[in-house]
Design brief:
The chain is α/β, with parallel strands linked by helices and 582 residues long. The chain contains 19 helices and 13 strands. Helix 6 crosses helix 19 and helix 17 crosses helix 18.
């Protein structure tokens, strides 16, 4: 072949090569565009499904107009009638008993007439009669948080979760909150301002308050807005100010003044943490004889770390006697005797004290060395009740959780492996479902514990175990939140098929409980008996050598009910019953 022909052939080959390259580039570009289009369609599909789910929830809420919401709205309308002097306290009490009647379908009767004015609604209430009252309790929470309206820590989820569970079991629940400037009012159904002021005592004078009412998850909520002390709750944050005692003692006093003014006669006033603990002495020293003789007080502590220690003379701001209360058997702080302890006030003046803990027993809580209330808790130990937190089982369910790459359940665990591989991929770990993956969460760890942990992890890693760590710094408030998160996570993790175990046999929080303190919760007993008395090394052996045994434990734990409706709610109902019988 001549050189010219060779050159021409070479040119043609290069031409064909370039064309092939262009075609490949074009196809790659088309493939990328197609993938982007598929991703866009997928995102739109997910967005559409979310929108459909949201519309279905809205439709369900609007069409059901469930009995809880209607009952809550009726109660709030009755409160407004009392505040505007349309009815008296006695008639209001009769109407409230009517709403609690188990033998009448009050929700069906009033669902179509809730839009009427108070005067017209009053006529309907008077025409509607009922005789018997159901056995449920009337509980009013005086608190500083409630999800999703205002949520800072564990208190918000607790108030909402417990209240909904109580109502599902036939009890009537209301909530009183400060009207913060930062409230998420979009979550409040039927928010309305009551056309009347009520006055509350503070700093030697009576001061006006504006009342707002609404319904959250079928629970009637009253918001108290101070008029003169408007700056108390018109701030960016909920807590953390130098005058927090003044802010929350004002709210506590105003809540009691409102309850009396509205003619409410609850079975239980449920107060929370130090912020509303002052309700205890206020109730027994000032309010009990103002129509509340049948009411009892229950305090819940999410943590004993935050207590609020103040000068005794500040008690006079809300109408209390500093001299009479600054005593060792009352409010005097156990360590700083010249000061008063507000959380101690709640413990001393409550009929029952619920301490939220998933794993600790009453004895462990009393003997703890960090909170300084040991003498007080020891004296009042018969009041103490330990309850595990719960969770919303409809929101935390691996069979329907839209955030999981693949759903699964106790009956069909296939999706769990896919979720594990997806997590490994996200964290940059070796992707293999058969690898044991351990999650470690720490609120605090000492230097000695850290060295032991390093050795343990090194030994486990040599056996192919992967680790994921979460923790916090040495900020006390953050550590408290992290500790509660650890406890709450145990429940949710078990629901998703991840089991709590010991890192080693000398774990500082769990370990082997030789005394078998029966005052711990059923949840803690179940976890200790099945998981937390198993060190990590033993758990690894079981997983590797007898996986079917471990899988059986996982499936069993996933089917247990650790929601708000389960043990947590039952413990609270038992506590309410106990104090009503005092």
């Amino acid at each position: 072949m001549r050189s010219g022909e060779l050159e021409e052939k070479g040119t043609d080959i290069w031409k064909l090569f370039r064309e092939a390259q262009q075609n490949i580039l074009y196809l790659n570009k088309q493939r990328i565009m197609a993938k982007e289009e598929l991703d866009r369609v997928k995102r739109e599909k997910i967005s559409l499904l979310d929108r459909i789910e949201q519309l279905e929830r809205t439709k369900l809420i609007n069409t059901r107009k469930d009995k809880f919401s209607i009952s809550a709205e009726l109660l709030l309308r009755i409160d407004a009638m009392v505040l505007t002097s349309l009815i008296g306290s006695k008639e209001a009490s009769e109407f409230r008993r009517l709403i609690m009647d188990s033998n009448v379908s009050i929700a069906d009767y009033f669902s179509e007439i809730m839009h009427k004015q108070d005067t017209e609604l009053l006529v309907e209430l008077r025409h509607f009669s009922g005789k018997s009252r159901k056995s449920g309790y009337h509980v009013i929470h005086v608190c500083t948080e409630m999800a999703p309206v205002v949520s800072v820590g564990s208190l918000a989820l607790y108030v909402t979760g417990l209240s909904r569970a109580l109502q599902r079991k036939g009890h009537l629940v209301e909530v009183i909150l400060p009207k913060y400037a930062s409230l998420n009012l979009n979550e409040v159904h039927g928010l309305r301002e009551v056309d009347a002021e009520f006055h509350s005592y503070f700093n030697g004078q009576l001061h006006g308050n504006r009342i707002w009412t609404g319904v959250v998850y079928g629970i009637g909520v009253t918001f108290i807005e101070p008029l003169y002390y408007s700056s108390f709750f018109s701030r960016e944050n909920i807590y953390g100010y130098s005058n927090d005692f003044e802010r929350f003692s004002y709210f506590s006093r105003a809540s009691l003044d409102y309850i009396v003014k509205a003619g409410k006669q609850p079975d239980v006033l449920h107060i929370h943490n130090w912020e509303t603990s002052i309700v205890g002495p206020l109730f027994w020293d000032v309010f009990v004889n103002q129509g509340l003789e049948g009411t009892r007080i229950m305090l819940t502590c999410q943590s004993l770390e935050s207590q609020c220690v103040e000068q005794p003379e500040k008690l006079a701001l809300c109408g209390l006697d500093p001299h009479g209360l600054h005593r060792s058997d009352r409010l005097q702080d156990n360590h700083k005797s010249h000061l008063v302890n507000v959380l101690k006030a709640g413990v001393v003046y409550s009929n029952k004290v619920i301490i939220m803990s998933s794993m600790q027993t009453k004895g462990q809580i009393i003997n703890a060395t960090i909170h300084g209330l040991e003498p007080t808790l020891t004296i009042h130990k018969d009041k103490l009740v330990v309850a595990p937190p719960g969770f919303d089982s409809s929101a935390w369910d691996p069979s329907v959780d839209k955030f999981l790459p693949q759903n699964y359940s106790a009956d069909n665990m296939k999706g769990k492996s896919a979720c594990k591989v997806s997590l490994q991929q996200h964290l940059g770990l070796q992707e293999q479902a058969s690898i044991i993956l351990v999650g470690c969460i720490f609120s605090y760890i000492s230097d000695i514990e850290l060295e032991n942990l390093k050795t343990l992890i090194w030994m486990a890693s040599r056996r192919g175990v992967q680790f994921v760590f979460m923790g916090s710094g040495q900020t006390p408030g953050l550590n408290t939140a992290m500790e509660y998160f650890e406890e709450e996570l145990k429940l949710k993790a078990m629901r998703y098929g991840a089991m709590p175990i010991l890192l080693n046999s000398t774990d500082r929080k769990s370990g082997h409980f030789v005394d078998r303190d029966l005052e711990g919760s059923k949840f803690s007993g179940y976890v200790k008996d099945n998981f937390t008395n198993i060190p990590l090394s033993q758990a690894i052996d079981e997983l590797k050598n007898n996986p079917s045994k471990w899988d059986k434990k996982i499936v069993d734990a996933m089917t247990k009910d650790f929601s708000w409706d389960a043990e947590c709610c039952d413990i609270h109902i038992s506590a309410y019953a106990a104090i009503k019988n005092l």
